[in-house]
Amino acid sequence: MATTAQTSVAAHPRFEPVIGLEVHVQLLTASKIFCSCSTRFGAPPNTNVCPVCLGMPGALPVLNRKAVEFATLAAMVLNCRINETSIFARKNYFYPDLPKGYQISQYDKPLAEHGYIEIPAGGAGTSAGSNGGKQKKKIGITRVHMEEDAGKSLHEGFPDSDEKTAIDLNRTGVPLVEIVSEPDIASPDEAYEYLTRLKEIILYTGVSDCNMEEGSLRCDANVSVRPRGQNELGTKTEIKNVNSFRFIREALEYEIGRQIDVIESGGKITQETRLYNANEGKTYGMRSKEQAHDYRYFPEPDLLPLVVDEKWRAEIARALPELPEARRARMVKDYGITEYDAQVLTVSKSLADQFEEAAKAAKNPKRVANLVQGELMGRLKAKGIAIEQSPISMRGVAASADLVESGTISGKMLKDLYDLSFERSKDFPVVYEEEGRPQQSTDTSTLEKIIDEILAANPKQLEQYRTGKKTMLGFFVGQVMKASKGQASPQLVNELLTKKLG
Fold first, then answer.
1. Is the dihedral of CA 75, 325, 375, 437 positive or negative?
2. E strand or H helix at 414, and its extent?
3. Residues near 501 by beta carbon (within 8 Å), at least 6 away in sequence
4. 109 torsion bin: left (phi>0), alpha (psi -120 to 50), beta (else)
5. Average pLDDT, stretch 96-105?
6. Of the candidates 236, 255, 20, the residue with the CA atom closest to the CA atom of residue 143
7. Is the alpha carbon torsion for 412, 414, 415, 416 positive or negative?
8. What is the pLDDT of residues 106-138, one digit of tens each?
9. Given the DSSP bridges, would you call strands 237-242 and 272-277 parallel, antiparallel or unpaired?
10. Quick check: helix, strand or coil at residue 171?
């Protein structure tokens, strides 16, 4: 069965997969693409609707300018060529959650074309940019076009849901961009890398929150297999409605293996749409795949051609952010941190902004980077909260880093103060003041007395040290730190012990 070869399908000796992805991203506008209805998620069903998004006769669409600007900005950061003129079209199909019987989209003349995203060659299986300088691979982007979303069919959560389907039209008319890749993706790992990188870039622009749970980012995958070395593409299937990047990778693994099994057993692949069952780890046929001409596209008669001229493009370009890859390179240079540090600290724009604020305020940016990763993010993960809800601000991290840097507090004292900050939901400087501004002990006579007591209490370990087991020094340092309740200066303790032990 296909499932027995899941981990090696992309490296099959006879066949190779070809993958293309279609990603729908909801634009973060307050109102819909062709009317003033709210796009707020979670409103009661069928309350964010009007005659325009319900497709009532005589209701005319009016294009949302902010949606155009966001879509253009997204296309720019994906290295696309912006077409000065694009055309909206009617994509005709009949489905219960599409009240007009057609969807306003773009077809033969889209907003933008011919872009690309760079990923680690081969798909590193890690987040984008963390491949340690390995060779990059360009994944082409065929087109970026604008369209309106359809409604949602509900199959549970209401009376008689076992017999009936309910319709919520709140999403109808929500603005989307569809980002269509070239079939350049050669493995499920590369697909995962592409999606991770795409989401990261879009989040940095602020044009979408890319929340997959709320439907702000959705992905359909087209996949086929062909004999290695053959140029002609095989028959493809489309995998729809997968709600996480991990599941997309798993679905592709299964579907590639399934197609190889079918071909090797003498069968033929049917072009169809398939769904992925995450509990079973399998894809299942849903319907035969429609061809483009089945939609009977024709230009939308109620909308003029969209013209994004050079002047407007220049205005939009002024909002271009520093993108993650460039930011990582600059942070390595500016703050003396490692590429890995930069990767972790730019996982979101918010985290990167806050780190830079702290790094500029601190004496040692590298220590700030270490504290964010080693102390702050671990506690946030354990509590299940985001960086934005952290009780310790980045300025608090900077203050704590400076105290350690100056030798005022030890690493153990810092850990204890961080724990108290999380327990009390207060920032580090506040807790530091509440605790009486504790400091490391540098009282030599007091420390010498503690050392004498520790050595006298551990004659066996002392003998081991004196007979050549020098690693026992660490044991004695630990005992002294424990006896001083973490307030002794580790450096001074090491010096005094080394002197005492001869």
1. negative
2. helix 411-424
3. 462, 465, 466, 473, 476
4. beta
5. 93
6. 20
7. positive
8. 999 999 999 999 998 876 544 444 444 568 899
9. parallel
10. coil
Q: What are phi and psi of 403, to 5 degrees?
A: -65, -40
For residues 41-61, one letter each, b for 16 or more C-beta atoms within 10 angstroms of the residue's C-beta and e for the rest, the string is beeeeeebbeebbbbeeeeeb
Residue 164, Cβ neighbours under 10 Å: how many?
Answer: 10
Tokens of 360: 């500029």
Query: What's the N-to-C CA distance of the chain in angstroms?
Result: 69
Residue 2 in this model has a pLDDT that exceeds 50: no
Alpha helices in 291-348 (DSSP H): 310-317, 324-335, 339-345
What's 57's DSSP letter?
T
Give the angle 289-294-298 at the CA atoms, nearest 5°.
140
The residue whose two tokens read 């985290």 is: 351
For residue 247, what are its two tokens? 């599941």
Higher pLDDT: 487 or 249? It is 249
Domains of the chain as residue ranges with CATH = 2-310 (no CATH), 324-434 (no CATH), 444-501 (1.10.10.410)
Let me know how many helices (H) and strands (E) the chain has, helices first: 16, 16
User: Tokens representing 303?
Assistant: 């909308």
Q: Which helix or strand (DSSP H or E) is residue 200 part of?
A: helix 188-205
Is 0.85 surpassed by the pTM of this model? no
**What pLDDT is stored for residue 291 in this prediction?**
55
